[in-house]
Design brief:
9 helices; five-stranded mixed sheet; NADH-quinone oxidoreductase subunit NuoE; alpha+beta; NuoE_dom; single chain; oxidoreductase; metal-binding; globular
């Protein structure tokens, strides 16, 4: 009696095709412990589905020999992993303290009604348009986008648009809805969310992306960001030298 060779398990969803499975293996091969590949693998799933679905959770769990509870715990902890289908573009408005005080709250409030209506403003992580279709937008408020020197700021697919106003933010989302891709203030040229998710998973050679070199080109600094360093240089200010010996640390209390 001849034994039948084992059949490799099929993906839990037709969305996870052979290319996705091949990329999954490539990601896992980079880590000594397979479970360490979970974060990029979730980005890969999101590049395929436009969000992390229950099927995506199961796919990651099977690929990494984890439970769905373990995968869900990670997918729900990080805000970059979305649990509902996203638009072609993710618009993130910073509403943390400095951005909020300088107009971030007003920008977010205006975009909610502009993309929704006065009676039914668009909510956090809600989408206008058919998810994934050209011009569709998912709107979210973000706690901090780490650009206080350029506040108020927003991001489109994690690329920065600095020194925004209510008017410029409305013009930006209107351009996105028309299918345009305005140039970010800093960073790489704008693309769509799924392409960005594929890049976050570690793949930049997909045929749908622009030239790889162009994807990493673009201004990365701003006058505001280096103003302190320039003032120090102009005034001859320097930081005090490090001591030859580090200062003594206080003694730790004894364990009882």
């Amino acid at each position: 009696m001849t034994s039948t060779p084992p059949v490799e398990p099929s993906p839990v969803s037709p969305a996870f095709d052979e290319l996705t499975r091949t990329r999954t293996k490539e990601i896992i091969s980079l880590y000594p412990e397979s479970r360490s590949a979970l974060l990029p693998l979730l980005h890969l799933v999101q590049s395929v589905e436009g969000y992390v679905s229950p099927d995506g959770i199961r796919y990651c769990a099977e690929a990494l020999d984890l439970t769905t509870a373990e995968v869900s715990a990670v997918a729900t902890f990080y805000t970059m992993y979305k649990r509902t289908p996203c638009g072609e573009h993710l618009v993130s408005v910073c509403t943390n303290t400095l951005c909020a005080a300088l107009g971030g709250d007003d920008i977010y409030a205006r975009l909610r009604t502009h993309l929704g209506s006065e009676d039914r403003p668009l909510g956090h992580e809600e989408t206008v348009g058919e998810p994934g279709s050209t011009g569709s937008i998912t709107l979210e408020h973000a706690e901090c986008l780490a650009a206080c020197d350029l506040a108020p700021v927003l991001q489109v697919n994690y690329e920065y648009f600095d020194n925004q106003t209510v008017g410029s933010a409305v013009e930006l989302v209107d351009a996105l809805r028309r299918g345009e891709r305005p140039q970010p203030t800093r960073g790489a040229p704008l693309t769509d969310l799924r392409t960005v998710e594929l890049e976050l998973a570690g793949f930049t050679d997909d045929a749908s992306t622009v030239d790889t070199t162009a994807r990493v080109e673009g201004p990365s600094g701003a006058v505001e960001s280096v103003r302190g360093a320039r003032m120090a240089e102009e005034n001859g200010w320097t930081a005090p030298a490090l001591p030859d010996e580090p200062p003594a640390m206080p003694a730790l209390p004894e364990k009882k």
